[in-house]
Design goal:
Strand content: under 5%
Structural class: mainly alpha
Number of helices: 8
Helix content: over 70%
Number of domains: 1
Order of helices and strands: HHHHHHHH
Shape: globular
Number of strands: 0
Length: 196
């Protein structure tokens, strides 16, 4: 029988479920969930840091496999539903590059804000092989989980209070997301000397 008064009994399912849900439907701030989980693990004995990383990795991996499977299994309506908020040119760019370096795109797409879904949709639409997708997605999910857990470790190392450490981890995740988004947008804008 599960003891629902134990924070671990709630924390681990929320961590895994939140990351899984956010990896399929990008409305949940998955990085903040991982950072908060790591911060709680650093400041209390309610959660284990290695288990936080393992569950975050598994949640991200399963979510990415589901996102890839939607177009890979051929459902046109499902592809339109998943892609409705994605920019068409971003999807086309991902399709063009996939044949040359699909493995790297999967790893980089997991780490770049708003890059994961177009990359996985393109991979599925191009019938990228499962045998190549699964190890790439697992490696990408592990790197991603460790990166966001490090933000929680930093905040947990600075403050003894789980609440303060969790809030700081969330703020750090948001700052990293904003900075990487701005850098990505800056790199994509046309140079002033370029002609159309």
């Amino acid at each position: 029988m599960t003891d629902w008064t134990d924070p671990a009994a709630i924390g681990y399912p929320v961590l895994f479920g939140g990351v899984l849900l956010g990896s399929v439907i990008p409305i949940v701030p998955t990085g903040a969930i991982v950072g908060a989980g790591a911060a709680v693990a650093m400041t209390t004995d309610h959660l284990s840091l290695p288990l936080v990383i393992v569950l975050a990795t598994l949640g991200a991996f399963v979510g990415d496999v589901i996102t890839f499977a939607v177009p890979r299994l051929g459902s046109e309506a499902a592809v339109r539903w998943v892609a409705r908020r994605q920019q068409a040119e971003r999807l086309e760019k991902a399709r063009a590059q996939f044949t040359r370096r699909g493995w790297q795109l999967i790893v980089i797409g997991r780490l770049v804000p708003a890059g994961r879904i177009p990359v996985l949709l393109a991979a599925g639409a191009l019938a990228y092989p499962w045998r190549r997708l699964l190890p790439a997605a697992l490696a990408a999910s592990l790197i991603w989980a460790v990166a966001y857990a490090l933000l929680g470790i930093v905040s947990g190392g600075l403050f003894d209070s789980p609440l303060v450490a969790t809030l700081l981890a969330t703020v750090l995740v948001l700052v990293v997301t904003v900075v990487t988004t701005l850098v990505s947008k800056y790199r994509q804008r046309p140079k002033t000397g370029e002609r159309s």
